[in-house]
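Bug: token stream looks shifted between consecutive jobs. Job 1:
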Amino acid sequence: MRNMGNAQAALSGLVEKFVGDMLALIQRTAIAEASALTAGKVRGGAKGAPRLGARVPAVKKGTGKPGRPPKLTEAERQKFVGKALRAIAKAETGATMKMVQDAIGADIATTKRLLRDLVKSNAVRTTGKTRATAYHPLDAAPPSSSAAPASES
């Protein structure tokens, strides 16, 4: 029975020493991590585990470069050009970008690129600037400020 008390006392002493060593180890590690964070360095952890202070990569929403319209196939481009030219020809006072966009059913970036290409290729002409830009077919007469007198025969 006496040996039982000595063994229990020895075991209790070992457990207290172990717990003290573990607390000291945790404290040293925490201090090292905190000093590394303030210095701008992050220590690597377990493989695959997120590191403290590491940036989380953003989720990609699509392919291609941000802000650019998707590439069109030649068939899609021809379809959009046909619809755009019909919408421009149908508008009496010139078609706005919004009118063309609604007619072709494309996003604004694709519509802008398509209209810019049509202007460069001399398929349409523009009047106005910025938000007041109107697109006219080339074969239509430009709007004039003064009406020409009608000649009577």
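Job 2, same session, no restart:
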Amino acid sequence: MRLGRIEEGQRRIRLECEIQCISCSKRVPGGIVVADGFDKTDEFHRMLEDLRETYLCGICRDAKRIEEAERAGRTTGDA
């Protein structure tokens, strides 16, 4: 998963961060990819904390979207 902006030609680094789905506790696959040097900024740390508090894996995210669509009375188009 990429975090922050990575400009063309900028070196990328991969970080292994403990980020889990807030619903089912699955880990982020493959870690976090950021621009070299971005991991030392305050903005990165704010974004990382926000991600830790709100991250949903794909399965939980889709389930939440379907649930919200059903509550709103819309169909999902899967019928």
